């Protein structure tokens, strides 16, 4: 009976995922607020049904009470997040909230499948991050000085990256994180945010050659420290954000082309300078050449991608445990094995929908500073998704980047939630500005109507006075006046005729 339920569940989970993904794109084309709210309600129902079925199936197979506790934690998180956003930020983008909750749910489920203790740690970090993130839109809305801290963002970012370079322990060939009281902090995840704020602050008003040159030097310092730390995947994320922000602010294709050429030269230089880069390129070219040692991770990931076929093996019916770092770098492979390739395609589309939503929000921002922040954070998110999935599928060499909101990692999920809350703050700010503009236009319209009414009243009063005066005048006087006028007209007419003759 359990096997039948598991077999049916994988198809139902797939249908729910397809439905949710379709709704996330469909809502982008809807302008009526009532229609959008109906879609959001459907998404919440789909999301709750998805979590209930997945955790129920996992509990049936493991009979572990922790699965029920984990489901209860996920349920409370989703309900509280939805409720608080509707209570505190009524103008927030619920589409972005729903996408975030769905991606987090997929992550909680796959982490519970792989190692339930990691799932509990992840949801604690997510809950804490979400609680902090509710303060960010308020700061963006009220604190206008955030636009004036340009060099503070640069100094903070460079200082944090330098601390990691000097004090971080080496992990998988790179200096990635610092351990403080048993907790690992990957500062580069948070510097991604300050880096974008610095770029936006520098290029919000001036985009001449000197300003771009100064900005490029400081950006190169960020990327250079990451290269020295051998964290090349994160360095690429930083560089792509820099490239897009410079292009959007200056609108000069020559800068983008120069940046791409620099990227090609830097990639070649990294290949010859760093041994682990050469190893990853060799594995990418032929992972089966040294399957048992160097190529083991990527080969197992490729097996996992295809093992479940289109519809997946079903939860606890596959072997994602055999994929090294399945909770970190190769989470996408574990999802593909048990949920199926079709489910993974929907996951990619959901990430694309999130990116398009961020771009849409950025294009609506009236202030250049906020517009550049939104597009910069959106690019960082999209590049991170591309690097993770591209490396797992052997489309590009593996970079060691985690899948945002899905993979296990406290610093990664915290920084991503903060990034999305910044986008929410910008969206709320834009909605408030639009509301203020509408209110001002309404007041102006009312003022114009009042002025026009007062003019009409004055003219009507004037006409009434004239009519009263005419009425009060004796009929004889008015008759004489009209008679004199008629006589003058007749004389003038006769004069014209005589002259013409």
UniProtKB/TrEMBL annotation:
Predominant localisation class: membrane
Q: Name one GO molecular function term.
A: lipid-linked peptidoglycan transporter activity
Stretches that traverse the bilayer: 12-28, 44-62, 68-85, 97-116, 122-140, 152-171, 183-203, 223-248, 254-274, 295-316, 339-360, 372-393, 405-429
Alphabetized InterPro entries for the sequence: FtsW/RodA
Question: How is the protein disposed in the membrane?
Answer: Multi-pass membrane protein
How is this protein annotated for GO cellular component? Answer: cell division site; plasma membrane
Span list, region Disordered: 439-501
One Gene Ontology term of the biological-process aspect is: regulation of cell shape
Under Pfam families, the record lists: FTSW_RODA_SPOVE (PF01098)
User: From start to end residue, where is composition biased (Basic residues)?
Assistant: 444-459
Query: Where are stretches of biased composition, namely Basic and acidic residues?
Result: 474-501
List the subcellular locations. Membrane
UniProt entry keywords in alphabetical sequence: Cell shape, Membrane, Transmembrane, Transmembrane helix
Q: What is this protein called?
A: FtsW/RodA/SpoVE family cell cycle protein
Identify the species of origin.
Blautia liquoris
Supply the source organism's classification.
Bacteria, Bacillati, Bacillota, Clostridia, Lachnospirales
